[in-house]
User: What shape does this take?
Amino acid sequence: MKTHIDSGAGYSVNNVGNSVSLSIDSQIQYYPDIPLSVQTVTESKVSIIPGSVNQLIPTVGGTYIDAIPRPTISVSASGYIILEVSRVAGQPFPNNPIIYWSATIPSDTTSKGYFNLASVTITGSPTTGYGLAINNYRSPYIGAVSVGRQTVATNASYYWWA
Assistant: This one.
């Protein structure tokens, strides 16, 4: 059975007899969005690029971050965009990922773990206008977040992030 490859955006394919040549247009580059990155929506709102945590889609205010339109997080002052996961009894991995704004970074507990996705800074003044600066902490090389929980004997449990 003979296969056929078609041309697409940024490349062309030439099928000649039993051979195929592929030409890649080096001027077209594609930079995909980094999952769970924070983006500015307005000078007081941000949204999150859809991604998963332990194969679960996080929510913002009860709405999944991959909904259309994307849910937004209101930012009233400088602070952090936090990813929180909860412990689920009888399961090795945390569950129920939610994302929200916080003035501080909470400390992990035996029932909840926190990951700082980004810091947000309100800039400007009433005269010059306000702006929102975002510093994402996500690596472009990590496509999703994996979370685990460890307990040593009777000591407290801790979340770890990868």
Remarks:
- The first strand starts at residue 11 and ends at 16.
- The mean pLDDT is 77.
- Residues 152 and 158 are 9 Å apart (CA to CA).
